[in-house]
Design brief:
The structure is a single chain. With 148 residues, the chain is mostly beta strands. The chain has 1 helix and 12 strands. The strands form 4 sheets. It has a 4-stranded antiparallel beta sheet, with no helix packed on it. It has a 4-stranded antiparallel beta sheet with strand order 3-10-6-7, with no helix packed on it. A two-stranded antiparallel sheet has the order 2-11. β6 and β7 form a beta hairpin. The chain is elongated and about 45 Å long.
Length: 148
């Protein structure tokens, strides 16, 4: 019984660490993310704070680029607009996935090292989109984003 009580906090901590922050998620049934398919979600900010965006993408192994370029745009309750440009390298020079590859799907987290300042309280609107050279970014199964 004592062993269970000792392991319970560790199990809860592991579950909390693996969870993804609430936000938005978009699936692409044809595995192509069109530039016009903007992922949009709302965030209610109760106190001025700095939060870190987290973005997770699921790719098919045949993704044809070494990197991905994303933009995160947010609109504050007052109408003020913020913009964050994100770029991440996904494959090395030999074409090997840096995040690992299970031959069916590759999951990668893309995000900044620092947070963004949400100075106002109220509802913020977030929009995430890719800005690659092709208007359709294929071999992308899904994208999800949130703040923590």
């Amino acid at each position: 019984m004592m062993r269970i009580l000792l392991l319970l906090p560790l199990a809860l901590l592991a579950a909390a660490c693996s969870s993804f922050p609430p936000g938005g998620r978009q699936e692409f049934p044809d595995a192509c993310w069109a530039m016009s398919d903007t992922l949009t979600w709302m965030h209610d900010n109760s106190v001025p704070d700095s939060l870190t965006p987290r973005i997770r993408m699921t790719f098919e192994p045949g993704y044809r680029y070494r990197n991905v370029h994303l933009r995160l745009r947010w609109t504050a309750p007052s109408g003020a607009i913020g913009l964050l440009t994100l770029q991440d390298t996904l494959l090395d020079a030999e074409g090997n996935w840096l995040a690992g590859n299970d031959a069916r799907a590759v999951q990668a987290e893309i995000g900044p090292a620092a947070g963004i300042r949400l100075a106002e309280t109220g509802a913020y609107r977030f929009q995430l989109y890719h800005y690659m050279r092709d208007s359709a970014l294929c071999q992308v199964r899904s994208v999800e984003a949130g703040l923590e």
